[in-house]
Amino acid sequence: FGMLVRPALQLxxxxxxxxxxxxxxxxxDGGAVLVAGWSESGxxxxxxxxxxxxxxxxxxxxxxLGGDGEASAFPVGVGVRRWVLPSxxxxxxxxxxxxxAQLAVAAAADRLSRPLLRRGRGGxxxxxxxxxxxxxxxxxRAGLSPSRLRAAYGQADDxxxxxxxSLVAVLETVPNGAPSVEEVDGGRAAHRLARSAAYERRDWxxxxxxxxxxxxxxxxxxxxxxxxxxxxxxxxxxxxxHVVRIRAPFPTDPRPVAAALAPWL
Length: 265
Known about the structure:
By secondary structure, the protein is of the alpha+beta class.
């Protein structure tokens, strides 16, 4: 699904004047706030921290943004990392039992694997150590369906609702320091978001390049063309929206990131 169906659906949206933004999204005072950025930059964690303060869940990982400036959910499961739960007391208290059990197993696996992972990275056991590390990391991220996450925060609104976008916040990872927020140009943000989305669909585009060997009439630069088309759509949609850049380290406690963003909401 992630390699074929999802990117095909998202690229079909572009042909209809709509874009799938690589972002999480929440609703604040009737407006959609998109928390966008590169993979593993803290989109989900920041959105959850905003929800702890009363924001309402709309979407995670991907958000559908229409040319009319309205956002809606692209249904994808939500990954909740074990280390972030102490910063999210409402979610931690309402976490479903299967997710709670998985994260407890992840904590035990983490403790048991530390002696092996602390050893050198080289040698014949290096591949086994890397596989173990990846396995422990996957186990420490509990998958919640959007409906379960909505239930955890007591939401009963329409999950398919469309909301006018009021703010787009683009995350930028820095080595350290307190989170900072500044307004940026929407056109430049559109370029970055289109590149991020194209990278997330790289497996699809790799298959298209292989198909181009058998069907040489297919466009050679499908990835670049799709990114350019999406950039134009995003630039138009963001022309009348506040766009900010958040500089923050990751991983980090998402509450200061949400607090830095609060004056812009």
